[in-house]
Amino acid sequence: MEDIKIITKNWGKINPLKISDYIEVGGYSALKKFVAGMKPTEAIGEVKVSGLSGRGGAGFSTGDKMEMVAKSKKHKKYFICNLDELEPGTYKDRMIVDNDPHILLEGIIISALAIGAHKAYIYINGNYEKQFEILEYALRESRRKNLWGPGILGTKYDLDVELFSGAGAYICGEETALLNSIEGYRGEPRLRPPYPTAVGLFGAPTCVNNAETIANLPWIILNGGKKYAKIGATCSPGMKLYTLGGVVKNQGVVEAPTGITIRFLIDKLGGGMQDEKEFWFAQIGGASGHLVTEKELDTALTFSRDCPIPLGSGAIVVVDKTANIYELMLSWTEFFRHESCGKCVPCREGTFRLHEIISRLQDGEISERDREAMQDILWALENTSFCPLGKFAATAVRDAVEKLKILNI
Amino acid sequence: MTVGKILLNYETDGENILPALKKINTTFGFISLENSRIVADYFSVPLSQIYETASFYDAIKVEAQPDVMVQVCFSTHCAINHSGKIIDEIERLFHLKVGDENNPRIKLEKVSCFGRCGEGPIMVVNGKVYEKVAVEEVGRILGEYI
Amino acid sequence: MKIKINKKEYSAKENETVLDVCRREGIRIPTLCSHGKLKREAVCRMCLVETNKSDKLVTSCTTKVFEGLEVTTESEKIKKAREINLELLWSDHAGKCVKCKKNRQCELQTLAQEYKIENFHFVPRRGEMTSGEENELLRENWSRVVVDEKNPVIVRDSQYCVECRRCINICPISSYGFNHRAGDVVVGTPYNETLDCLFCGACVAHCPTGALVDQGDIQKVMADLDDINILSVAIVDPAILSSVENELENVSTLEDLTGFLRALGCEKIFDLSWGFQNYVGKVVEEIHPHHAKKGIKKMHLSNFCPSAEIYIEKYYPALTKNILKTKRPEELMSEAIKGEYATSEKIDPKKIRVILLSSCTSRKKLQGKNIDHITTVRELGRIVREKKMEKDEIKSSKVDKFLDGAGKQYENLYEYGQLSRVVSSQIKGKFSVGSANGVVEIGNALKAEFAKEKHYDFLEIMICPEGCENGGGQSIKIKE
User: Fold this and answer.
1) I want to staple C239 with a disulfide (CB 3.0 to 4.6 A). Which of A383, C8, C32, C468 is the partner?
2) pLDDT tens digit string along A143-192?
């Protein structure tokens, strides 16, 4: 089963800038199959059967999300590819664009057609300037081949695809914040309900999917949802891109099924620890991710709510005992102190105070007052913030305190 | 290039506000009050919305910037690769602190992930990205700008 | 539908939120961001409650009711959440309550007392930090403080701000924004410019803390009241009676208030009837010659509301000439106090101080030769609190008669719609009047006029919703 490659199958084998290369290896045949003989409901049905869930981290069923928008009777609908990818330690979506931009475009076009959207946006991380250019070029090429634009592939269906570049705000990876950003507002998360599938971009039903999620679609359309559902963990099947970093031998992005253990990731895919270094802990899912210690290494990573270690964005950073944990904690708290949108009290004030406290303990000493304050702030972030970012801000620090037992709390 | 000319490339829909602001920012280095007013009028939105949006995003500045803007990534990967030491070195070399506005010539910022984690530590000077920066190189690299 | 709150059953309507039901039923839920009909932002996290739907705390201000919903409004968990978030706000707050203009009328202070927020454990004491850390802390905490005292009506100080967004949501011309990000957020004007708005004062009235307060020096008012060589004359705009009770307990009638003012040291107290009557007379005089000429279709705009006048000047400059030039009631009256009245009473006008008690903040711009002090309801409350006056010392009293007096029919001219009614009744012939409150209605009325769908000979325009009774100088209840 591990030999299957879905997203990375063309990496290194084709010239990513040449649409003809992509077509030669069977590219855009899923789109053609869909246009030629599939109803949107059938396509969405396949996605539902596949069990594909959001690869950005939330793990919501992709098929369900698409269906909600598809069912809406409103004429105006939008499809958005979320390529904001600002989670520290994660650059899988960037690699998709670098190596195979057309698989993404094909997925976007299929998604938009399936939900009945005539306009699709690619919201791309503002730092990804080179990738912006690659996509711009790929869009031009595919447009020339009538794969999008007015009357796709001889049908009467019009689809416009537009690139939208972010401006450096982590929170814009959250779908409602992303919508605000496109509309020209501050990238603050919106109140839900209503969900974007009902009231999204400019008030219209909108489906926002992560780039990696979308890159699975051509394969699912060609090979069927049933086949996809057999890959990986049963609770959240499919292939996943993992970004390996830290003190593992092989760093970078690899594709593997869901449901593999962290030990497998480090030892088999990562090639083990660098220079016989001693494993201390790993962080799964970026700055917002949990820390895992030696005894949790055999946990299987899935998107299920029951999974003790959420897979998140699929980033894994391996840390050895020589690392300065206080500097890392400072890095996490500084990140959230900078990236909180500032909207709600616990996140705005809490991330600010948490960072202050952490910057006071570089020597590993913590005063009784700070110890109590830290516990209170972590609790408030976890239980009272407006959007998930507040909760994320507490995750790694809590784990450092509770699992790594630093600060003797 | 004037702001008015830049704006003519955009239709007056809300979705063009952020792209227009980014463009004006790259052209002028920041968005001034004057220019914000012009943008607000062009898109027929309150000035307060333009300033809210402009001041929210890292890539857009609402104040004039110093000649040399140094940004060092301090997110997980780069922090593990000791980007903290690079920050210390810059602070030592130029007698400044992260975020200081005192020195009109150079400003140092800690920034969030650039998505180039494999290549860390990452330092960006006036938009130019330096990968795998070693502490010893910092003086030489910045010397090219000052 | 039926829902349960704290194990008791209540009926609720579709689309109501839990907070709506609780407010109606008198179940107390603290809020700092939500207020009245303002947009529900759910950012202060004070109104968190527990439900039978999930194990998470939810904001009652945005949670819609549904059949079978069970809500708990007080529990250990809820208390903890409110305490921590209050303390987080408190530690970022200037904390200079005694000197603050909102002392004892502050929603944050009231909640801090209710939840016994005393120890600032998020901010270390001096001895617990190195001097470097201390400097860093100060720099971080103070780097974005914005103070604006330059405009004539509103004093802003971001140290007191709790980022509730009420001012952003209530401002009719979007003067304020939620600027910057994370811990650097400052609610204020673009580029921290001095406020240059309609000065309607709605933001001041709705600010839960001392971040937005009235410009003005009550010490000067108090000094004049205490000076035995000065004759203090109060003009009471009856509109203030709708909110004076929020500042002065159990004071709701003009007689109660007059008693209070006499005890404060006002030698003479008049209501505005005389001013209203004379104002109407002047308005009719100004309009009539135009109207009498056949074929001239001029739209006259009322100038009663100074904010509306600024609005027209700013957004419809071409219509500035259509605004009436007549002096406003309080201007006419204060002029008469220092003129006719002083002569008849044989008082040196230089020894008279006129204090206008008003529900309007933009009238503060009228302060000058004839009106010495313009005091909002909130400022009146501060004077009374500072003087530590007790209600039981005070006897009710009637206002004094001013000159020849005035007809009863002018008493309520401040009410929205009255002016256009009274004016139209006094002009002969075909004369069409209208009234518009708020910038949206004013905009619509003007649009109709421009499009020739409708013509107004006289349009009464007010910025505050429903006019002066909801004026920006009124006091709002600090516990909803």
Assistant:
1) C468
2) 999 999 999 999 999 999 999 999 999 999 999 999 999 999 999 999 99
User: Cis peptide before A193, with omega less than 30 degrees from 0?
Assistant: yes
CB C267 within 8 A of CB C231: yes
CA-based end-to-end distance of chain C: 24
Model confidence, pTM: 0.95
Closest CA to A298 of A285, A287, A307: A307
Which residue in A153, A177, A150, A152 sits closest to A166, CA to CA?
Answer: A177
Is A214 in contact with A31 (CB distance < 8 Å)? Answer: no
Neighbouring-strand partners of residue C212: C156
How far is residue A172's CA from residue A385's CA, in Å, rounded to a whole number? 17
Give the helix/strand (H/E) hosting C292: helix C273-292
CA distance A329 to chain B (A): 9
Residue with tokens 């997110």: B75
For tokens 């040399």, name the residue.
B68
| Neighbouring residues of C328: CB distance < 8 A, sequence distance ≥ 6 | C275, C279, C303, C304, C306, C363, C366
Touching partners of B (3+ C-beta pairs < 8 Å):
A, C
**Which two tokens mark C51?**
């439900």
Report the alpha-carbon distance of residue A228 to residue A218 in Å, rounded. 11
Look-up: residue for tokens 């609908």? Answer: A77
> The tokens of C242 are what?
């709708």
Order of strands across the sheet that contains A279-284: A252-257, A239-246, A315-320, A279-284, A290-293
Distance from the Cα of B144 to chain C's closest Cα (Å) equals 31
Residues on chain C bordering chain B, Cβ-to-Cβ distance under 8 angstroms: 168, 173-181, 189-191, 193
Q: Render pLDDT for C224-247 as a digit per residue (tens, 0 to 9).
A: 999 999 999 999 999 999 999 999
B6 touches chain C (CB under 8 A): no
* Chain B (10-69) residues lying within 8 Å, Cβ to Cβ, of chain C: 33, 36, 46-52, 55-56, 62
Q: How far is C436 from C443, CA to CA, in rounded Å?
A: 9
| Best mutation target, A344, A363, A368, A391, to test chain C (most C CBs within 10 A) | A344
Residue numbers in chain C where pLDDT is lower than 50: none
Name beta bridge partners: A279: A320
Closest CA to B81 of A322, C94, C92, C453: A322
Q: Do C189 and B50 touch (CB under 8 A)?
A: no
ipTM given for this complex: 0.94
Q: What's the first-to-final CA gap in chain A, in angstroms?
A: 44
Cα–Cα nearest to A128, from A89, A164, A160, A76? A164
DSSP readout, A204-267? S-EEEEEHHHHHTHHHHHHH-HHHHHTSS-SSS-SEEEEEEEESBSS-EEEEEETT-BHHHIII
Query: Pick from C111, C81, C82: which is nearest to C97 by CA?
Result: C111
Region A113-131 average pLDDT: 97
The secondary structure of residue C56, as a DSSP letter, is S
Give the number of other Cβ atoms within 10 Å of residue A294's Cβ. Answer: 11
Which chains does chain C touch, 3 or more C-beta pairs < 8 A?
A: A, B
Chain A: give the shortest CA distance to residue B94, in Å.
22
| Residue in C168, C178, C190 closest to B47 by CB | C190
pLDDT reading at A409 higher than 70: no
Separation of alpha carbons C460 and C420, rounded Å: 6
pLDDT at A1: 47
Spatial separation of the C-alpha atoms in residues A51 and A45, rounded to whole Å: 10
Q: What is the DSSP string of A6-17?
A: SSSTTTTTS-TT
- Does an H or E element contain C222, and which? helix C218-226
d(CA A147, CA C260): 80
Per-residue model confidence as pLDDT tens digits over C343-381? 999 999 999 999 999 999 999 999 988 999 999 999 999
